[in-house]
Amino acid sequence: MRLRDIFYDDVDAIVHYKNFKSLSKLVRADIHSVLFDIFVESPKFDKYLDDILLFPNLTHVELMFGLWMSWDFVLAMLKHSPMLQYVVLSMQIQNGFYQYPVWISPCFAPECLSSQLRKCSIINYAGRESELHFAKYIMQNSKVLRTMTVCTLRYSELKVEDKLELLKELSLCPRSSSICELSFT
């Protein structure tokens, strides 16, 4: 089963997940930001972030990091998906007025990082500090990570020198997995 789109306009039902059917057999999910704009501003959403469903069989997730999504949501998905093996984080291109939230590395590593996560991809990487810190967190805490792929924007404003500097900084980052390869395109 592939979860493609979810739309539910009752914020209370979303944060009180008991109203949803169990998704315990879910293996792959694509989560796009446009459908969740309705409850982004809700303080209830942040308050109940830890109460989202547990996805015990989810092995592949693709998250579209847009205006609504916070790093807390990304971390909650990692935390509640203990079998997660592949994460794709696609950064949406935003206009100059949008301030990306800051990634704050937690003092713990979700179970999937300790034993399952083998591949992580960050698409449309623009070299923002939060993206860099997230990539470092994944590499430093994923014990079985095989591949960390970072794809910059095709027509990025980043100069070649800046891309090389980002690659150098990521390359020097300590990795928890001795077999982790960094791919930078």
UniProtKB/TrEMBL annotation:
Family annotation (PANTHER family): EMB|CAB62440.1-RELATED, F-BOX/RNI SUPERFAMILY PROTEIN-RELATED
Stated name of the protein: FBD domain-containing protein
Residues of the FBD domain: 111-185
InterPro entries registered for this protein in UniProt: FBD, FBL13/AtMIF1-like
Origin organism lineage: Eukaryota, Viridiplantae, Streptophyta, Embryophyta, Tracheophyta
Taxonomy, superkingdom: Eukaryota
